[in-house]
Amino acid sequence: MSVALDENCIEADEPGGARRDRVVALGGGHGLSATLKALRSIDIDPTAVVTVADDGGSSGRLRREFDCLPPGDLRMALAALCDDSTDWGTTWRDVLQHRFKGQGELDNHALGNLLILALWQLLEDDLVGLDWVGRLLNIHGRVVPMSSSPLVIEADSWQGDNCEHLSGQAAVAKATGCVKHLAVVPADADAHPEAVRAIDAADWVLLGPGSWYTSVLPHLLLPAMHRALVSTKAKKAVIMNLGTSKAETVGMGAADLLEALEAYAPDLRIDAVICDPRQCGDRARLVACTERMGGTLMEFEVCGDACGGVHDPLLLGSALKQTFESLGA
């Protein structure tokens, strides 16, 4: 079964109106959700390009049973872009995010994951299925998988002289040693054509915040995605995390994270690094790495007093708006 959306399903600029900046945000999970919620507060045209390597929880179970893309991070991106100014939007957002609790096979499955899987099976097109969910939620923007194939993340975790090879996003995310030799499998997997098109047509591309090795860096490891990010004429910004993780990036400050990004993509040029001044850490190293990559360090308070280590959507939205206006497109 193949169903095409009508032209009103995907947002477009009003005829005769000013074109909104096209902003592509790359990542997955809670970090990408934070960026998307921030982008909703400013007048831009957003596209989320989402990592498809999750192998844990509800997503992992569905991926193994149905040989499908893991839907969880895609679901979270859809929910983050939902229009929550109406009861319709907030209700369907909550339905999408609802997790079943019980003793049977549905336990801990997110209803949105099942809805997305049902549409994929009915429509036989991953992107069209996501567009239909976006239409149901009346989202502002579009959600696109980074690849049409589910990916596996692999890495080595070093603790002193001991090395453990880890396979799978869930395993790498729990690494407590120094993560090295990060890779995605299959290494030659194709990037989703719509993800490449969106990056090529963008005014701005955003990387981060989020789980650095399992949500952010994988976008740079897929050859077609890497080429698209290097060749696009769009300006690029990196949004740094707040604080350090208990695993995967344990003990790593902002400079460490940016240097890791530089190591995996030495040919990537950036225009801005957005960092909360309280999280800059070794500021001299952070500035030096930013400048080596061609960018400017932009310091904004993006964490409210009660944020609990999560970016405040309005503060981050304001920081992004000022960055876009300051550096242009």
Automatic annotation (TrEMBL):
Compartment(s) of residence: Cytoplasm
Top-level division of the source organism's lineage: Bacteria
Gene Ontology CC terms, in alphabetical order: cytoplasm
GO MF, any single term: LPPG:FO 2-phospho-L-lactate transferase activity
Keywords: Cytoplasm
GO biological process per UniProt: regulation of cell shape
Main location: cytoplasm
Keyword Transmembrane found: no
SUPFAM superfamilies: CofD-like
NCBIfam families named among the record's database cross-references: CofD_related
Homology family: Belongs to the gluconeogenesis factor family.
Function: Required for morphogenesis under gluconeogenic growth conditions.
Protein name: Putative gluconeogenesis factor
UniProt source species: Actinomyces graevenitzii C83
Lineage, highest ranks first: Bacteria, Bacillati, Actinomycetota, Actinomycetes, Actinomycetales
